[in-house]
Each structure stands twice: as structure tokens, then as C-alpha cells.
Task: inverse folding
């Protein structure tokens, strides 16, 4: 219907010019009627733009939150004439910072090739997908049926968590506050020649390890136990429950937790440690391992993790589900959460104490996101968290982290001093 009206207008214009020229005896006016007829013929017989190809190109590099990503859009139109309106839809989270993501192109008689560029800013880690480009095709002089099309395969932009490799801290105190060098070796590795202790005999112990002098003195069978060979192990427990979503899309406890864990994982893996990960609330477990492959797998997992609003798993559940790892590796436990109560974590550590001799080697990072707000309620929450942290210091090393006031580099430096 839309294409009939312009055609009628051109036809009526030509007829009017012929009639007017005849009645007024102005031949030139009648001759000018040929131009509307030529335009009408062109509009009716020239096909609309077709043979359209769209290619979106994103530079292959490592992107982190806050980076600008430049996107090049290559357009090729082979046939037809008319207008092409092109628009590249964007994910709602990104910000357009340079150029435009909508263009108007005129396709003339020749083949059209054009490259368009624009830049977006990615606010946080994750996967951002550019959907197919939207096209609105309008025939020449609107003499024809307009069309729409969606061209191009979806393009995914990968934004990795922010990793800040901790710097090694030099200090005169050579004793670690957290006994990771002594307690985090695998219990299943080959037996070394380093003596550990004398203990009661257990079925399955080799006869050659029986300490006959101690057995004769005590009256019950005692054996020598030796250290096992193996790599030191660190196990991260990252909270992904609703308390970790306090704040904005870009700034919340989970985003800072992901960056902290990724940075510490990088540090430990570079030093040959086994590193594992458990996402509390989602029940997702990564077995401890070492090397670049484990680093890549952990960063990928941390990049994708999101808060689960319906989570009903707590830290005790998480420790119980990963208890086999605790038994096998006796790792350093690192917990990252926005703590609003102490009982849950205290019960979880109590579950693990039977696998350690005494206090569980652990660090609890208690994230404080409430400085971005104001009012009396913020101070009440602060006092509550101070009480929680004091209570937990009896069973773990607790690090209070105000994510608005303290840079992650300072938190990392403090951590490295404790576990170097």
C-alpha cells in the first residue's frame, strides 16, 4: 500500500503536466512530464538493495572491567538501489562511548562497501553478546515494498575478572602467621624421610614403621609417622548468595570477591600450589590442581559466577560436600563472604577440626559494601560485623575489607604477609 501512493503521485504529476501544457499551450511543460515518468520507471523496475553481507569484528585481546571495546562493522551491498537503515543492538549493561550504533546508507548503482566503527565500555566481568544486526531496507523512491532483515552471527565479547598479581612482600619476620607450609601437604602422596610424630598403630600401617622401643615402653603398639610428599594446597570458598549482591551492577561484594580470589589464585598457582574452588550457594566445586590449565579454568568459572537468589546452601553444607578434599589435602581454607552472622561459619569450621590438629588454618575475608550508603543503619551494620569478626577471630584469621575505602592491592599485600 505504501508503494502505490508514491507511484500514483508521480503518475498524476506527469498527467497534470501534460494536460496543463496542452491547455496553456506551453509545450515545455508537457515535455517536462517525462521526468516523473522516468522516476516512476526507475522506481518500478529497479530492485531494492539485496545481496547484503554484514561482518562484525572485535579485536581478539584480553578485556577487563572498564575497558573500551572497539567494534568494526563491515557492510557490503551488491545489488539494487535504495536506502538501508542499519542498527547494531547492544547488551543493556554496556555503555556506548564513541561513534554510533545506527547508520543510514544509500545504495546507488555501484556495489557499496563500507566500514563503520563504534566503541563500548564493558562495566564488569562476564560474557557480552552482540545480537545480529538489524536492517530496514527501503526501495528507491519508496516505490516498492520495504523489508527487514537480521544479519550476522552473534558475537561474544569475553571480559575476564580483574587480576592484580600480588607483589612478594619482604619482611624480617620469617615465621608465617598461618601455618600453610606445615599443614597443607597432600595426605596421599609418597612417604618422605622427614619424621612427623609417633602415634598409635592403625590397621594397614606397615610393620617396618613400628617403633619397637616406644611400644615396649608404653605397652601398646606405636608407629613412626613421616611427612607425605606433595604440593601445598589452598581451597577457596566464595559466597554467591544474595548478601553478595548488595550495591550496584558494577560494584558489589561478589565483584570484589571474584577479583580477590582470581588474584590470589594467580599468586598461589604461580608458586606451584594446588588450588581449588567452591562456589557456596551454587554447589559448584573445582577440584584442587596446579598449573596454567587450572588458572584458566578458575578464571573462567569466576568470570561466569552470579548470585543465586534461591540459594539454600550454607558454609557447613559446602564444607561437608568438599570434606573428601579436606581429608586428602588438609588445605589452607580461604572464605570470602559478606558475613551477617558468625554461627554458620563457626559450625562449618568445627566440622573440619577433626581433620586438623587444633585450629583450622584459614583466612576469612569479611567484605563490607555498606560504605556506599549513608545513615544510621550503616553504622548499626558496621557494629554488628565488628562483633561477628571478633567472635570469629578465635577460630580463624579475619580480614575486614571495606570495598569502597580499601584498594584490593592493600588487601592482597596483607594476605601475602600472612601466608608467605
Result:
Amino acid at each position: 500500500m505504501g508503494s502505490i501512493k508514491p507511484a500514483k503521485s508521480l503518475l498524476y504529476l506527469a498527467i497534470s503536466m501534460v494536460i496543463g501544457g496542452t491547455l496553456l499551450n506551453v509545450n515545455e511543460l508537457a515535455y517536462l512530464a517525462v521526468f516523473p515518468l522516468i522516476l516512476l520507471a526507475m522506481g518500478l523496475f529497479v530492485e531494492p538493495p539485496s545481496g547484503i553481507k554484514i561482518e562484525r569484528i572485535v579485536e581478539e585481546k584480553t578485556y577487563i572491567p572498564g575497558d573500551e571495546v572497539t567494534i568494526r562493522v563491515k557492510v557490503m551491498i551488491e545489488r539494487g538501489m535504495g536506502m538501508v537503515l542499519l542498527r547494531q543492538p547492544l547488551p543493556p549493561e554496556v555503555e556506548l562511548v564513541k561513534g554510533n550504533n545506527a547508520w543510514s546508507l544509500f545504495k546507488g548503482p555501484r556495489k557499496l562497501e563500507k566500514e563503520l566503527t563504534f566503541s563500548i565500555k564493558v562495566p564488569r566481568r562476564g560474557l557480552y553478546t552482540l545480537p545480529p544486526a538489524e536492517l530496514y531496507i527501503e526501495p528507491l523512491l519508496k516505490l516498492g515494498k520495504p523489508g527487514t532483515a537480521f544479519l550476522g552471527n552473534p558475537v561474544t565479547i569475553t571480559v575476564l575478572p580483574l587480576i592484580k598479581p600480588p607483589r612478594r612482600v619482604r619482611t624480617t619476620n620469617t615465621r608465617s602467621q598461618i601455618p600453610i607450609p606445615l599443614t597443607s601437604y597432600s595426605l596421599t602422596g609418597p612417604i618422605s624421610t622427614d619424621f612427623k610424630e609417633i602415634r598409635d598403630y592403625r590397621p594397614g600401617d606397615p610393620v617396618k614403621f613400628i617403633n619397637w622401643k616406644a611400644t615396649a615402653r608404653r605397652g601398646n603398639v606405636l608407629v613412626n609417622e613421616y611427612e607425605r610428599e606433595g604440593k601445598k594446597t589452598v581451597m577457596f570458598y566464595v559466597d554467591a548468595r544474595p548478601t553478595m549482591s548488595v550495591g550496584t551492577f558494577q560494584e558489589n561484594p561478589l565483584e570484589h570477591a571474584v577479583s580477590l580470589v582470581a588474584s590470589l589464585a594467580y599468586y598461589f598457582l604461580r608458586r606451584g600450589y594446588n588450588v581449588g574452588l567452591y562456589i557456596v550457594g551454587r554447589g559448584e566445586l573445582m577440584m584442587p590442581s596446579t598449573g596454567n590449565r587450572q588458572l584458566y579454568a578458575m578464571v573462567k568459572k569466576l568470570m561466569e559466577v552470579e548470585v543465586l537468589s534461591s540459594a539454600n546452601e550454607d558454609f557447613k553444607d559446602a564444607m561437608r560436600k568438599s570434606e573428601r578434599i579436606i581429608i586428602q589435602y588438609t588445605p589452607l581454607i580461604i572464605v570470602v563472604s559478606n558475613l551477617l552472622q558468625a554461627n554458620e561459619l563457626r559450625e562449618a569450621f568445627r566440622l573440619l577440626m577433626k581433620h586438623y590438629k587444633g585450629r583450622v588454618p584459614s583466612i576469612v575475608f569479611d567484605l563490607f559494601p555498606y560504605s556506599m550508603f549513608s545513615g544510621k543503619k550503616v553504622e548499626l551494620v558496621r557494629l554488628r560485623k565488628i562483633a561477628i569478626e571478633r567472635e570469629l577471630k578465635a577460630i580463624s584469621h579475619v580480614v575486614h575489607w571495606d570495598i569502597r575505602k580499601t584498594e584490593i592491592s592493600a588487601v592482597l599485600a596483607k594476605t601475602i604477609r600472612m601466608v608467605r
Q: What stands out?
A: The CA atoms of residues 216 and 223 lie 12 Å apart.
